[in-house]
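Hey all, quick one. A colleague (J.T.) asked me to put the zinc ion job into the tracker so the inputs and the structure tokens live in one place instead of scattered across chat threads. No bug as far as I know, just bookkeeping. Sequence used:
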Amino acid sequence: MRRDDLLAELNRWLNVEQIQDYCPNGLQVEGRETVSHIVTGVTASQALIQQALDVGADTLLVHHGYFWKGEAQPITGMKKRRIETLLSANMNLIAYHLPLDTQADFGNNVELLKRLGAERLEPARTASPEGILMLGHYAKPLSGAELSERLESILQRDLVAAVVSDKPIQRIAVCTGGGQGFIEDALNAGADAFVTGEVSEQTVHVARECGIQFFAAGHHATERYGVKALGEQIAEQFGLRVTFIDVDNPA
Ligand SMILES: [Zn+2]
């Protein structure tokens, strides 16, 4: 498939033009014009690039790419090595950040909520861009201990931090990755529990003092599923070969 045709479709699925972000979304490093084998993964680290090369991929599709607002601009050190490896292999790097968190059918937030068995998914009106904080409901309320167990078994890791109480959880809010700052939006949206990837010192106080249960389940672990689902969608729609590779990260 022509790379630019694929990009046009992806940009449309992910509503890229409507979302303000901290990095460029779409093609970040240009490689060959024809795409036949895509490797998907969370972050375009050197290890993931190498594994993509090892399986013979021509395109790498990730959630965390490069060129973040505020980062040092010179292409030196780690950044040089990564970009050099991509360019010398003529490999495309395609990245979608916030558009992939917020996507309504297969974004990171929606994919995690589905795995957690929540229903009636909807974006919280208290947070923007739309979909950055997603709500789900449990017809049969869960306890905090049950939600902890469910997270650990789905994500295959221990929680980073949790504030759990006896209050049944009926409404759950999710913002994957470094979303701890959305705890107040989750509270304002009436959530009984808030799940994200990371924790800050103050997040714990908000949870304890405002009565919302809180679960930090890992930045990487909570963000595996959007890019994986996007890859599956690409394989199904366009018949391209897509391989998801998880390079584990304890953060
Ligand atoms: Zn992230």
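Adding what we noticed when we looked at it: The chain has two domains: 3-101+224-244, 103-222. The mean pLDDT is 97.
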